[in-house]
From TrEMBL:
Region (Disordered): 135-157
Pfam families: DUF3305
Protein name per the record: DUF3305 domain-containing protein
Superkingdom, natural source: Bacteria
Length: 157
């Protein structure tokens, strides 16, 4: 990723960002426990040398997932990580698609999340406005089933 220039702003579908994680050491029932959290996501390189440059890239075929996230009570930005030796987490990918984050979790990869920063929210809404909404194919089937069950139960008066 040496060619990426995170200090430049976003394009219509790519936003180079810097990600910094924070290692938290605590005691859990008397045992040492390590957890990780997102310390910072920034368009400008932090002074910390541990900051990792990543690109948040949007894909037109994921618009249903984006709308689901944007419509949530708390829209979320996901950081998909790789666990290295000694339990160190390294950020590897950014996403605003909950489906993708869930797939990585199911595969055993650590995924961290934070509330979606307002500039990312606005940028994602612009992407959705530019490319249009996709109809959730499952939503149509649910509507048809609901109509069919309404017709069946609606005939008894």
């Amino acid at each position: 990723m040496g060619e990426m220039q995170p200090d430049h702003g976003p394009t219509s579908d790519k936003w180079p960002l810097w990600v910094l994680l924070d290692r938290q050491e605590t005691q859990s029932r008397g045992w040492p426990s390590v957890s990780w959290k997102i310390s910072q996501i920034s368009a400008v390189k932090p002074e910390d040398p541990e900051a990792v440059p990543l690109c948040l890239q949007l894909h037109r075929d994921e618009r249903i997932a984006y709308r689901f996230n944007l419509s949530a009570q708390a829209p979320t930005l996901f950081v998909i990580c790789e666990e290295m030796d000694a339990g160190k987490l390294v950020p590897r990918k950014l996403s605003v698609a909950q489906d993708l984050a869930a797939d990585h979790l199911d595969a055993g990869q650590p995924v961290l999340s934070i509330p979606m920063p307002q500039p990312v929210y606005v940028w994602l809404e612009q992407f959705m406005a530019q490319h249009g909404e996709l109809e959730d194919p499952k939503a149509g089937k649910r509507r048809l089933r609901a109509q069919a069950s309404g017709e069946m139960s609606g005939g008894t008066a």
